Structures are given as C-alpha cells and as structure tokens.
Amino acid sequence: MPVLGHGPTMTARRTVGGMRDAVIVGAVRTPVGRRNGGLSEIHPVDLSAHVLRALAERGGFNPADVEDVVWGCVSQVGEQSWNVARNAVLAAGWPESVPGTTLDRQCGSSQQAVHFAAATVLSGQADLVVAGGVESMSRVPMGSSALDRDPYGPAVRARYGVDGFNQGVGAELMASRWGFTRTQLDEYALASHAAAAKAQDAGEFDVEVVPVGEVTRDEGIRRDTTLEKLAGLKTPFRADGVVTAGSASQISDGAAALAVTTSRWAAAHGLRPLARIHTAVVAADDPVIMLTAPIPATAKALERAGLTLADIGVYEVNEAFAPVPLAWLAETGADASRLNPRGGAIALGHPLGASGARIMTTMLHHMRQSEIRYGLQTMCEGGGMANATIVEIL
Question: Which residues form the active site (predicted)?
C-alpha cells in the first residue's frame, strides 16, 4: 500500500484495530436505453426497483439489513419527484423499515451517492448502505425542473454577466480553449462507439447488466457510424462551432446501484468485497465553461490518495462532450490507452442521475476482469463541479 502522507483518505480508515473502511460488495446496472427506446415505457421508480432487487440477489445480502438507500436523480419532477429513492424501495418489495433519500449533484449525482454511502459506513452511522441512481430522460426530459423558472437568480447571473448557463456552450468554450478541431472530436466519438461495440461483442458488460424484459444490451452503440456521417451533423451550440450531437453524450434511460459496507460487516455476513473505496473528493471550477472541474478534482484525489496517475490502471472520465476527456488528457498527461477502455457516454448513453453509478459499475468489473488494482472515475457536473473517486480492487 502507498504511504498516505497527503491528508486523510478512505484507505487510512480501514478496519484495523477498530477502524473502519468502505467496500463495495455488489454493483449492477440496467442496460442503457436510447431515448424513446426499450426502457422508455418503464416508470423510473420501477426501473430503480429492478436494480435494487438484482443488487440484493447478486450481492447476497438481505434487504432488511440495508440502513439507507441514497439515490441520484437530476430532474426531480413528475414521475421522478417525491423522493424516488423511497418509492423505489417500496416498489422493490423491500421492508418498509428501509429508508431512502434522493440527491442532485447534477450529472455526478449517483457518484456522489456512493461518496455519501462510503462516508456513512466509515463514520459508523450505518453498516450497509445502497447507493445508485436513475434517470428516465424519455419520460422526464432534461431541463424539466427548470421550465418556466429561473433556477439561478439575479445575483448569480449578474456575477457572471450571463442570462443562463449551458453545457453545450461550455463544450464549445473548452474546444476553443484547448484548440480541438471538429475532426478531433469526431474521431474521439467514433473511437468511443468502437470501444463499446468491441466490449459488448466480447460479453464484457454481461456480468454487470441486469436485463429489463427484452432489453438485454445497451442500445446506444452505433456500429454503422463513420467519420463522414459525423462530419455531416450540425453544430447546435455555435453556428461555426465544432461540437455536435455525435460528439456529445446521448439522451438515455437507465439505473444503476452499488452496495457499500465495511470489510468487517461483509465478512460477518459471508459477503465478498469487490473493491475498496480508497479516496473520494469533490471539486468546483468556473460555472460558465462548466465542464473543466474533472481536472482539479483528479489532482485533488491523487494528492489525497498519495498516488500518481501512473499508479492508476484505468481512468473513467465521463464523455458528456468529447472536449471533456480530451482536455483532461491534455492537462494531466495521462496514458490515453487507459481512458474509457469500454467506451463512454457518447456511445453508451448518459442517463443523468444514474451515470455515476453506471460508470463505477463498469469500471469495477473491468478492473476485476483485467486485474487492475487502482481505478479513477471523474465526471463534470452542472454548475462547474466534479466528483473524483479512486477505488482499489481487493
């Protein structure tokens, strides 16, 4: 283990002499459905309940032992309002004694849910917490919670001299700042689809995916896309821009869940930990460009962990837009071959509230299958924030 000389980490709190750690004993997800695709007829509460039931079955724990369910969801209106976490617990048939709470840290909501779950078991407030999230973007369109409202207020708009904040515009600003061309973004998008298709064909997602009826595989992978097709797409955020729908994450439906406990509790209940949550941080940056915070979040996580990028065997940087992982690579100098090896949100989709847990589930199973010790996950979030998590395979 590394010498932890850079501040407190999750690893420093492992179960030794009464100290506690945070480990993951189960990680599952639905296939990611395309907008108006195979999952669009399923209520988000029922979609959430589906992964809760599968998590308990595959993880081998008794739902009655769950002390909280922390659930990410971005558009908490309509069918995703009134605490979708608690409703999912009830829909899953779990005991009424199991509580649930729903959080919104924008695209990183379910990654933050994992952080909260880890902090809860580390502190001794609970022994088993389920973390995850859902988003049915077919049924509750992106931005529904802000319709006919001003979520920023005059003081925020005045501070930054803008009428509002737009991630697509932020992606164009990133591309301009780092000098990315349209061709570079399209090439990145094409590679994401190719990597996801290769992983799907090899059955690499099978261990993590819980089929939903006839939907057994991720629906967003475009096997027939080409650079020529991508080059023909419009640039909706700037007339002379470089970002298109092809180099942006897909609007999607899905849910994912992980079970978080301590090594001691897992051993006492016959559960096999998949990984330890080594380090968990959150950072923030300029809210206008909005998408750059994964860069300082990564630096913060590595410093807290006492690790370097060379120690990390896989990096998952959410593909909200192609400039995000490309700028992250440019600033960190990371090994591009370790980045999003099974594709990302450009190919697989981005069901907002579920994406953090979906990405972590995919990363964990990739690490176990490839015998990788450390993995790092980070994702940009509305408001210019980013979570970063380092996990260690056991």
Answer: 107, 350, 380
